[in-house]
Amino acid sequence: MASNEDGTTSELREAFDQFDKDDNGHIDRGEFAQLVAILDPGMPEEQVSIGFGEIDSDSNGAIDFAEFAQWWENL
C-alpha cells in the first residue's frame, strides 16, 4: 500500500508533467508562464521572470522536478 507521501509525490509528478508540454523533463520559461497564468492570471511578466529565477535554483534556464517539488511545498 502506498503511503500518503507517495500519493502526494505521484500527484505532484502528474502536475509537473501537465506543464512540461514538450515532455523533456523540464519546465522552461514559457511553460512556467502558462502555469502562472492559471495560478495567478494577473501576475505581471516581471514577477513571472523573478519567480522563475527563484525556482530555477541551479540557474540552468529550466525547472526540473526537484525544483518544482520544492517550490510547490513552499506555496
From TrEMBL:
Signal peptide: none
Domain of life: Bacteria
EF-hand domain segment(s): 7-42, 43-75
Chain intervals for the UniProt region annotation (Disordered): 1-25
Biased composition (Basic and acidic residues): 11-25
Alphabetized GO MF terms: calcium ion binding
Pfam families found in the cross-reference section: EF-hand_7
Amino acid composition bias (Polar residues), ranges on this chain: 1-10
Record-given protein name: EF-hand domain-containing protein
